[in-house]
Input
Amino acid sequence: MTSTVAIFRKRLLSYSETFIADQGRLLPHYRAVFCGYQQDSSGIQLLDGSEQILLDEYSSMAPLSKFMFRHRLGGGKAWIAAIDKQSPALIHAHFFNDGLDAIILGDQLDLPVVTTVHGHDITKHENAIAQNSTSRRFFDRVDRIIAVSEFMAKQALLRGCPESKLLQHYIGIDLDKFTQQKSESDQPSLLFVGRLVEKKGCTYLLQAMERLQKRFADLSLTIIGEGELKSALQQEAESRQLNVRFTGAATAAEIRQQLAYSWLFVAPSITASSGDMEGLGMVFLEAQALQTPVVSFRSGGLVEAVEEGTTALLSTEKDVAGLTENIAQLLENSTLRHNMGAAGRERVEQNFDVRKQCAKLELIYAKLGV
Output
């Protein structure tokens, strides 16, 4: 008999959270039911065909119901009953703040709760889980904390997570979506994909691009993503007279096409002033899956997503000279570039295949007795 897991995210589901949708969809023996407060229209297609139970659809006064639920005042009864009707064996929340709400749902349904921590949810100073009463109650109640990397596991321990409840588990990506043949553009090309925020370090790539254009006249850079720094980065690119194209947001299929086409994937992530760091970086896995070498900085958990010297070239955070030379080395050496690309695909197949990882995740569920 197939068991059911209630996957909890307050908003279902941001366009960038394909990893949550794929993990639920590809569990081999559990049926995923996605539960939350409201729909996020940006990623509505991610959950096509999946069971969704939204508080918004079970209350004429959803904000009040949510408030009462979160303060344990009896709110959301119809929504809770709808989830209970699915007979879930456990609740799996994503991100720490969602875990805080998931344990309330777990108490209502008398179910074990697992929470995956991903990155900014515990590394940013404003989100740091100091050992206050709220975090202590959470860690007392939650059954397992899953960290997406060894780096994130260490961060969780620093913020009060009991070692006895902490596990490290890589989510992985759906390799069935990454079957395009590598087909490099005629002229050298770089690709950046990510939110245009401080943590992603795009300004350092623009600085490197200015140096690189003097050596590679035909070099182009495509930047995919939106964010608060977009305007400033566009102005910087214009002032430096760079051959850069800002595309804005793109679909997952469009990103895969660009990754297969580009010579290199360059995303020089840093530790932001807020403390925000890469927990792992799913797009680094996606680049490797399409045999595109990675160039970046040694930052956070991304050093686990790649293998330095084999699938990626890394330098110290904010080292523009090092970033420039690593890009140049791969642009000039096609044999090295192609060998690193092939090694990247092999690495992802061995360590980050979501189907293999989902089977391992079910063993974590099983140890909870569900």
